[in-house]
Structure prediction request, 121 residues.
Amino acid sequence: MSFLPDELKTQTFPCPNCQQYISSEIGKCKFCSAEITSDIRQNAIAKETDEKRAIYLKNQKNMLVFGIAFLAIGLVAFLYPIISVRWMGTSFSCLSPPLVVFGLGVIIYSLLGYYKEKRKI
Ligand SMILES: [Zn+2]
Prediction:
């Protein structure tokens, strides 16, 4: 965690000329010596941020699918106990509760992350 606003932090972005990742603090690409003007820098950083954001949102969506799958397996295991234990005269699946809880946790976590990131423009 840092208390510096994002624009003051050093960022890396691909050089528009050679695509090598360079630091935002330098005025010249250290690989191909291309001049990095502040316009180029701003555009490259904005593009890089967009790409990172798109990847993050995609990951959150994949995680949501995982969560739903775990929840579904948990519910199915609840109805059709694959591994069940008998306790106090009733048999219930010992696989089901952790899967349901884990699935719900993953769903909530991925949705929170997704909407938090979506609101940032
Ligand atoms: Zn370069």
